[in-house]
Design goal:
This protein has 191 residues and is an alpha+beta fold. Helices cover 23% and strands 49% of the residues. A seven-stranded antiparallel β-sheet has the order 1-2-3-4-5-6-7.
């Protein structure tokens, strides 16, 4: 899938070089919510796109965000998603365009797990309750885990998913466009 993304970027760059008005590159902010996102942090990303004709355009995006308490307390995850989307749109008034699209995502997950918080959650307790039940301080409990050789290695597999999108864009000046877009992404979490 990574090779497909690289080839897509090259195709869009070629399209942009042949017609400077047909290519764009920009950044975006993202607000992940819903689905399996429990405590999504504001994300960020970049996109490059190219106009195919008056109606159709394509875009390559890269977005990243963090989430905590993904599986249970003590789990933090960084998510990076690379996407390719085909869009169809039309001008609703001069310089304002509405559009819809669908595409594929390649999503990468990087998780960190706090063994103490995970163990406390498995016992149905908060970390403080768990430490009180053990009659230990946080430092003592972490030292005991290190001494026991206990380790948690969590590795989630990268996944291919898909998405749908709808948005509106406004051209506000030469080379400047603002947009708002809703994107719903489906991706599995396996590991």
């Amino acid at each position: 899938m990574r090779k497909v993304m690289v080839l897509s970027i090259c195709a869009l760059v070629s399209l942009g070089l042949s017609n400077a008005n047909a290519f764009w590159l920009g950044g975006h902010g993202a607000m992940p919510t819903g689905g399996d996102v429990n405590d999504g942090q504001t994300g960020f990303g970049i996109q490059a796109g190219g106009q195919i004709d008056d109606i159709f355009f394509a875009e390559v995006t890269g977005s990243g965000f963090s989430d905590s308490d993904v599986l249970t307390a003590g789990t933090d995850m960084d998510v990076v998603s690379l996407g390719f989307t085909g869009f169809a749109g039309m001008d609703i008034v001069e310089n304002i365009r509405a559009y819809v699209g669908a595409g594929l995502d390649y999503t990468m997950y990087d998780a960190n797990v706090d063994v103490l918080e995970l163990t406390a959650a498995e016992e149905g307790m908060t970390l403080d309750e768990y430490l009180n039940a053990l009659n230990m301080t946080l430092a003592d409990a972490r030292a005991a885990i290190r001494e026991s050789g206990t380790a948690v290695n969590v590795k989630f597999d990268d996944q291919i998913g898909y998405h749908i999108a709808a948005g509106i864009s406004a051209t506000v000046g030469e080379g400047l466009q603002l947009f708002a877009q809703y994107r719903h992404t489906w991706s599995s979490l396996k590991g």
